[in-house]
Design a protein that fits this description.
Elements (H helix, E strand, L loop, with lengths): L28 H30 L8 E7 L7 E6 L4 E2 L4 H11 L25 E8 L2 E8 L3 H9 L13
Length: about 180
Amino acid sequence: MFPLTFRIAPQPPSRVRSRPSPQAPPRAAPLRRAALAASAASLSLVGSLAAGAGPAVALGSPGVGDHLTVTVRDVGKGADGTFQVSCHPGAGTHPDVAGACRAVDRNTRWGRDAFAPVPDGGMCTARYGGPATAHVSGQWAGRAVDATYDRSDGCEIARWDRFVPLLPEVGSAGR
């Protein structure tokens, strides 16, 4: 019989990384602490929003500065002009301050621009809603507002109509 012999090939030296001693904090520790603090603050805010403090705080408590200037042209029916609207609490020269504030509140969603233009590339009907135009500027929910409105197609008409009575209702004669 043949004797069985096994050879064990030498292994290359392993690349063991030394760990820092427990006394020395890692270099990234201050950054981790800052990230954890920011995460905790975010979770606290989200938790308070979910617990019911949400929309009243996020959408405009006093001091946030919910104030809009609305300039309307070519609507007719005495609706043209420049109007001021302050919300939370409501005040201003707009003919329907409470309704205007409700319209903006209704269109406000956390993390979205309530006054955003119609997205490019959308499918819109080729319906003309008349020559009416509007410009809304000011401050809403802590954000600057500078938006223009017209009634040049179905998407723009729908965008306008979402903000009635902040923007005046345009009768069927204008459509």
